[in-house]
Amino acid sequence: MRDARAAIGALALAALAAAPSPSLAEGDAAQGERLFRPCAACHMIGEGAVHRVGPQLNGLVGRAIGAVAGYEFSDDLVEAGVDGLVWDADALDRFLAGPRDYFPGTRMVFRGIRSEEDRQHLIAYMRDAGGVAGEVVAEADTEAVDPEVAAILGIAGDVPYGEYLANECTACHRAEGGGDIPTIRGLAPSVFIAGLVAYRNGSREHQVMNTVSRRLGDEEIAALAAYFQSSE
Ligand code: HEC
Ligand code: HEC
Fold first, then answer.
1. Does 138 score more than 80 pLDDT?
2. Environment class of residue 118 by beta-carbon count within 10 Å: exposed (0-12), middle (13-18) or buried (19+)?
3. Which ligand does the CA of 195 lie closest to?
4. Pocket test residue of 108, 117, 126, 132 for ligand 1, highest count of atoms within 8 A of CB
5. What confidence tens digit (pLDDT) does each residue in 17-43 have?
6. Alpha carbons 49 and 7: distance in angstroms, whole number
7. What's the CA-to-centroid distance between 156 and ligand 1, angstroms?
8. pLDDT-based confidence at 134, cuts 50/70/90?
9. Taken in order 55, 57, 61, 62, is the CA torsion positive or negative?
10. Stretch 197-214: mean pLDDT, rounded?
11. pLDDT of 181 over the 60 cut
12. CA 65/CA 88 separation, integer angstroms
């Protein structure tokens, strides 16, 4: 039953992404608005929303987890986003059911919503009030891609220079991966760059990677991203 509903939700979202219009198949946005009251203690949504204790929630549905610019997320959320997870209906449902069950390290102190219907109402409300990713609802920053990441993505990476710089990385990041060290070969540049930027600005903490990334300028990161993407 749960999976079937999740599948319906995912289909509804896919349809919405193609033609943004009415609310989710299951959820009732008007009921969701009432259910959102306790959330509003920490979150703003809609026109002019800004970050408070929690991040503003405009453009939430479909955007990368823990990625809205200008907010310091916990490592758990940042890493989920860097790994390519987005807030689709299933992820939102799991998070709202039990934030800590889904992301043990989350800073959102909220016990969760037991009723699946209530969760669907809330998701419908957040989609209606805040729009889906990419739609601009407010002047406040709703960018899914951090501007720093976007700037580096715009630089054409020099592959031979990247290969030269990679000597410093491959001592740890071996082709097969292994242990606690993720494999970085073949990573999409958007993911690679978002990872290094998060270490460089400290939003993702790992002592070695913080030190390594702070020595890298934008040109170097672009060159490394181009090299690691091309090397299998
Ligand atoms: C006591 C404050 C508080 C309450 C109440 C609260 N949140 Fe949060 N919320 C947060 C914080 C803090 C974060 C950032 C979590 C992190 O970085 O781990 C967050 C994160 C989120 C995110 C992830 C946003 C993103 O861009 O990745 C969503 C979605 C969310 N909350 C929805 C809700 C909903 C819906 C409710 C009400 C049912 C709610 N929150 C209640 C504080 C709160
Ligand atoms: C001393 C070992 C070491 C060196 C040297 C090193 N890394 Fe890392 N790197 C790690 C570890 C360990 C992690 C995982 C850290 C974590 O859990 O956040 C990591 C994570 C990463 C990630 C995130 C991957 C992901 O899947 O999220 C990227 C990208 C990355 N490193 C790139 C580089 C680049 C580029 C260099 C060279 C300039 C480099 N690393 C040098 C150990 C190293």
1. no
2. middle
3. 2
4. 108
5. 443 334 345 799 999 999 999 999 889
6. 30
7. 36
8. low
9. negative
10. 90
11. yes
12. 9
| CB 221 within 8 Å of CB 146 | no
- Cα of 96 to ligand 1 centre, how many Å? 9
Task: Give the list of residues 6+ apart from residue 24 with CB closer than 8 angstroms, or none.
Answer: 9, 12, 13, 16, 89, 120, 123, 124, 127
Tokens 């009732």 locate to: 28
Residue type, 204: R
For residue 53, the number of C-alpha atoms closer than 13 Å in the C-beta half-sphere is: 11
**Residue 166 amino acid letter:** A
CA distance 126 to 79: 23
